[in-house]
Structure formats: structure tokens, C-alpha cells
Design goal:
CATH class: Mainly Alpha
Helix content: over 70%
Largest sheet: none
Number of helices: 5
CATH architecture: Up-down Bundle
Strand content: under 5%
Number of domains: 1
CATH topology: Ferritin
Order of helices and strands: HHHHH
Distance between the termini: 53 Å
């Protein structure tokens, strides 16, 4: 791999992981203070599962964005794909802020549906540039689908 590409893959993964770090600023304090006290559905995994899953997903997202980025920013389909990717990263952080920061599962459920649509749009746009990049985002979409179920169930069980 060329030195330029090594730099790009590091940047792409770092940007994705940074979204996770920013989201954790809202999440971590709320887990013992609030989340632990909520009634959760039977399928809710233990809290320790979320960290490793998200770190892995953000790494996959970073690799996927690198695969698109390396095709060249001069291409409009690359710009569109990466713009959608950035939008969904912002929405990902916003979900953490709404669910954990504001402690509002109802509003967070609306937000996670918008996030899911943004992820799907990013996958479609990535597929036009790199099928591999689009494929790498599928576990993320699956996890956010599961998180949507958890979000809705927590909202329903705790109102």
C-alpha cells in the first residue's frame, strides 16, 4: 500500500472512531446513572457488549470510507457518498446525545429511524463507488436495526 493510502486509511478510521468517542461522552455517564435503571427487553445484551461492537463497527466504517475516498475526490459520486457518510456519522453522535444525554428514548427513536435511512443512503452511494465498501457497512446497518428495536422497546417499557 502506498504511503498516501496508509495515511488515508488511518485518517478514515480515526474520523469514524472519533464519532464513537464523541458519542461516548453522552453515553458513559448515563449508563450507571440512568440506563442501568431502565426496564429493558429480553433481547437486550449486557452493557459491556456495546463498547466492543461499536469500536469494531466504527473501524469497518472507516475502512469503507477509505475505499470510497481512494477512488478520488474529483468524482462527484465519491463526494456524494462521503457527504452521506459524514451525515450519518453526525446522526450517529446525535442519537447518543438524544438517547443518553437528553435521556429521551421517544425522540431518540425518531432520530434513529432518520439515522437508519441515512446509513441506507450511504450504502447505496458507496455501492456506486465500491461494492466492498458498501458491504462493509452492512453490519452497521444490521446493528442499528437491532438498536432501533432496543430503543423502541425501552421507550415502550419505560413510559
Amino acid at each position: 500500500m502506498k504511503r498516501e493510502n496508509v495515511f488515508k486509511v488511518i485518517i478514515a478510521i480515526a474520523v469514524s472512531e472519533l464519532a464513537g468517542i464523541i458519542g461516548s461522552v453522552f453515553t458513559m455517564p448515563a449508563i450507571p446513572e440512568w440506563y442501568a435503571s431502565l426496564i429493558k427487553p429480553a433481547l437486550a445484551p449486557p452493557s459491556w457488549v456495546f463498547g466492543p461492537v461499536w469500536v469494531s463497527l466504527f473501524a469497518l466504517m472507516g475502512v469503507a470510507s477509505f475505499l470510497v475516498w481512494q477512488k478520488g475526490l474529483e468524482q462527484s459520486k465519491v463526494k456524494i457518498a462521503l457527504s452521506l457518510f459524514i451525515v450519518q456519522l453526525i446522526l450517529n453522535v446525535a442519537w447518543s446525545a438524544v438517547f443518553f444525554g437528553l435521556r429521551d428514548p421517544g425522540m431518540a427513536f425518531v432520530e434513529i429511524i432518520i439515522l437508519w435511512i441515512a446509513i441506507f443512503a450511504a450504502i447505496v452511494a458507496f455501492a456506486k463507488v465500491s461494492k466492498t465498501a458498501a458491504f462493509l457497512l452492512l453490519p452497521y446497518l444490521a446493528w442499528v436495526s437491532f438498536a432501533s428495536y432496543l430503543n423502541f422497546a425501552i421507550w415502550s417499557l419505560n413510559t
